[in-house]
TrEMBL record:
Domain annotation ATPase dynein-related AAA: ranges: 223-324
Highest taxon in the source lineage: Eukaryota
Protein name in UniProt: ATPase dynein-related AAA domain-containing protein
Pfam families: AAA_5
Alphabetized InterPro entries for the sequence: ATPase_dyneun-rel_AAA, P-loop_NTPase, VWA8
Organism from which the protein derives: Xenotaenia resolanae
Length: 326
């Protein structure tokens, strides 16, 4: 009887206010439940049908999406926004599966990013912004050709800047103001100057163009992702970029054995005793430093999902119960 009482003490009834709100994308019609591709699984089966009441959220209409963009990016050129939405609407409505896969890269969130940047830099090419959002450089030839055809049908042409070939891409620091190409910003005054990177770097036009592009997004408050082959100088560009901005950095390298706990806590030995302290991620959040995540593509999916939530909403629950809030 005593053992039974001990067992029942650890059983807690569900509170009557408890509810589960689940979010999911619609299942693919005709796909099998044992499909090897997770995106093609028929997850909506008889077990789930009896557990939930379903509410379908339809995509925004073209006019509604235009109103949302003009509300959040009021200074965007009207013609550019209309061309962008016409392209997105045509990709979403097409029956071509290759073109439909490109439409997911032009979500409402991505359209807002593009329009915010166009509102600050209206001289930029819409085709360049779309190609960058769809990662056209890394697409298969068939998908790239489909994107180029859709851009042509929407009257979006990539007009090269005639002055771009002869423009002098240099960086100048003068009177506390950094200028890379045509973009300028005041230099940051850090409290911990020892964390500002300082590396041997030789300026060249290609890297200067990349850093000018990075500075535009950095000033808009966006998080940056550098994608490139091994050995092209991604780490060098980041270190040089932060050195010019005079920004302290925290460095975190991911690998296939990275866990959520090691993402937020790191062990260290002090006086022969193992202690756990905040990881570079938590330190960067607390002190306002720049977090450089190296080899981000090597981490497991559950780790990148945690980082995705932190980047999107600015919130994250730490392993010891603390919470990062925006």
């Amino acid at each position: 009887l005593l053992s039974c009482l001990c067992v029942f003490r650890s059983i807690f009834p569900i509170h009557p206010s408890f509810r589960v709100l689940a979010l999911a994308e619609p299942p693919v019609v005709g796909a099998s439940s044992s499909s090897s591709n997770r995106g093609q699984q028929q997850w909506l089966g008889p077990e789930l049908l009896t557990m939930f009441l379903y509410h379908a959220v339809t995509p925004l209409a073209k006019a509604e999406e235009m109103g949302l963009i003009h509300g959040l990016a009021p200074n965007v050129p009207k013609e550019a926004a209309e061309q962008l939405l016409h392209l997105t609407d045509s990709l979403r409505r097409t029956k071509d599966p290759t073109a439909q896969s490109l439409a997911s890269s032009l979500s409402t969130r991505q359209l807002l990013r593009i329009c915010r940047r166009l509102s600050q830099y209206p001289e930029e090419s819409i085709a360049h912004a779309v190609n960058k959002a769809c990662l056209s450089r890394f697409l298969p030839s068939l998908a790239r050709a489909s994107l180029e055809k859709s851009l042509t049908n929407s009257s979006i042409q990539d007009t090269p800047d005639p002055a771009g070939q002869t423009r002098d891409y240099t960086c100048v620091v003068q009177e506390g103001v950094l200028t890379i190409g045509k973009v300028s910003t005041p230099i940051y005054s850090p409290n911990q100057k020892m964390k500002v990177p300082d590396v041997l770097f030789y300026d060249n036009p290609q890297h200067m163009m990349v850093m000018e592009d990075m500075l535009k997004d950095f000033l808009l408050g966006e998080h940056l992702l550098l994608v490139g082959n091994q050995g092209v100088g991604k780490n060098k560009i980041v270190d040089r970029f932060l050195h010019l901005l005079n920004r302290p950095r925290e460095y975190l390298q991911l690998h296939r054995d990275t866990t959520v706990q090691t993402l937020t806590l790191q062990p260290s030995v002090r006086d022969g005793i193992i202690t756990y302290e905040d990881s570079p991620l938590v330190k960067a959040v607390k002190h306002g430093h720049i977090l450089v995540i190296d080899e981000a593509d090597k981490a497991p999916t559950n780790v990148t999902c945690i980082l995705k939530a932190l980047v999107e909403s600015g919130e994250m629950i730490l392993a010891d119960g603390r919470r990062i809030i925006s």
